[in-house]
Amino acid sequence: MFDADTTAFLESGCALIVGTAGPDNEPFATRGWGLTVTDAESGELRLLVASNDEVTLERLGAGGRIAITACDVKSLQSLQLKGRAERVETAGELDYARAERFYDDFFGTIEESDGTPRWKTERMIPVGYAACVIVVDESYDQTPGPGAGSSMSGPSA
Amino acid sequence: MTPSDTTRTIELRDLELCFEGAVPAVIATASADGTPNITYLSVVRMVDGEHVALSNQFFSKTSRNLAENPKASVLLIDPVTYSEYRLMLTYERTERRGPVFERLRDDVETVANMQGMEGVFKLRAADIYRVSDIELVPARVHTDPSLAPPPVRKRTAPSAGELATLSTRLSRCPDLDTLVSATVDGVAELLGHEHCHLMLLDENGQRLYTIASHGYDAEGIGSEVLVGEGTIGMAAARGKPLRVGNLRHMTRYSHRVRRSYEGSGDIEPSYEIPVPTLADPGSRLAVPAMALGQVVGVLVVESDEPVAFSEDDEAVLTVVASIVANAIEVDRGAERTEGADAAVPPSAAPSVDERAPATQVRFFTSDGSVFLDGEYLIKGVAGRILWSLLGHHERDGRVEFTNREVRLDPTLELPEFRDNLESRLILLKRRLDERHAPVRIEKTGRGRFRLVIEGQLRLEAVQPTS
Known about the structure:
The complex is a heterodimer of chains A (157) and B (466). By secondary structure, chain A is an alpha+beta fold. Chain A has helices at residues 4-10, 54-61, 93-114, 118-121; strands at residues 15-21, 27-31, 35-39, 44-50, 65-71, 78-90, 129-141, 150-151. The longest helix of chain A has 22 residues, at 93-114. Chain A starts with a helix and ends in a 6-residue tail after the last strand. The mean pLDDT of chain A is 91. Chain B has 466 residues and is an alpha+beta fold. Chain B is 32% helix and 28% strand. Chain B has eleven helices and 20 strands. In chain B, the strands form four sheets. Chain B has a seven-stranded antiparallel beta sheet. In chain B, strands 10-9-8-13-12-11 form a six-stranded antiparallel beta sheet, sandwiched between helices. Chain B has a four-stranded mixed beta sheet with strand order 16-15-14-20, covered by helices on one side. In chain B, helix 4 (160-171) runs antiparallel to helix 5 and helix 9 crosses helix 11. The longest helix of chain B is centred in the last third of the chain and has 31 residues, at 311-341. Mean pLDDT of chain B is 83; it is low at 253-270. The interface between A and B is large, with 41 and 47 residues.
């Protein structure tokens, strides 16, 4: 599912935005706080979300569908992944370290490219994290331009 | 946002700064089968206390989802506090004309124009959504504010008193030269916009040229932009203010494109004067100066900060620009009337220091550009005026001139109506002063001026080679 370049991109400090849908198809937007590809072959990854994001965690805990868009802040290269949640777990020490590394890279890139000081972006850091195990089954090139939405593994987005 | 804010009801109007586009918004939708989609949005604008408008240009999957399921969830970030808000939306209607559509179209075209992609970025429609819920996304700082310093408070808009003081100053200016200086200095001193410049529309209504600036390393007098190009040119073309709060991202992109073209050799190095601008501006507000329904120029302010300018700033500067535009039109009218009566004064004997080194003045007939000892000075109408004056000086030793005789000089090809001569003379005067040129212009009365020449000049006209 993911080659080495895609894995490196997903695990970099790119912006992570996350969408879920409830039983009534009500969409819900949130942010991801770090992503690790745990099995590139099957498309399994571990996504960190805010531990107090009850809506997202409830939906993913019930095995709901998920969309994740990763976007490089400088180049605007974007990739949208779609899949299903396997389970939600309490974040451990490694997850917290992963989140810290993520927002260090993410906020650092924003500061470098847009001049937004760290003290501002750090105001977005959530109170804690929960880990969601996701299996991706579709991916789309979401980079702005004529090719946006083209499928990299499934039907056109 | 303080901890107590997390519990109070949030109104759409509280999110004013979120709609300036400084931080990209996020939208989640879901298809009929429950598959979510998440992407970034170009523009979100508040319509009223209960509705927002989203730009619909090419987010196709989002559009298809909304056709099946009218619900959406949007994330917005306040660019000052970095507080994040989640809005739950329900699609209500699509507008393809009217003020909301026009506002979004302006936003989209501004981005497109800066990136040279006018043909690609076109707003198809403005989708109007009812906001059913607004939630502050809880963050660590909301439970423990000591973890991050408080956000910087936004600069307050100028008071009516400050505006009145500036108006009084402008109304007391005796001539255009004083007026344009008083404008940029007053905007900085009284309104708090430290970086500003005033551009005037040229005789053909196609270009704007800088006549005064404040707060920049280089004054940029004589620098030009095309009407319709960039934020300043678009403000003139539309006759409406244009406020950009996310300039840093947009400018970075366009500079990168420009550099890549220069690197490929497709764009030749230019001798044009750079328009005054900050090294890395965060915000720009360009306000057209209008008189009698016509654009006379554009007043521009900039800031290092993103989303630095509010609707109040826009309103105040619109008043100032209007005062300036009307004063300029009055001055032009008076100058033409009084100048017509001014007789050609007797020429004073030129006072030239024979021992001073000669300065080479090269004039390119093709575009009216003038170079002093190889350094670019000015081009166009102002360049032709200088060349004409220096020709009179070389042939007849004249230094005293009237606007009337310059206006009648057929080599300048000035339009009979709206020749902007006084503005061009001021531009030339300021440019000569800025370059510490061995030629200066001194006003000797309304419609009259004197050339002050230090040292000898060697004039050379360069004709086109083909």
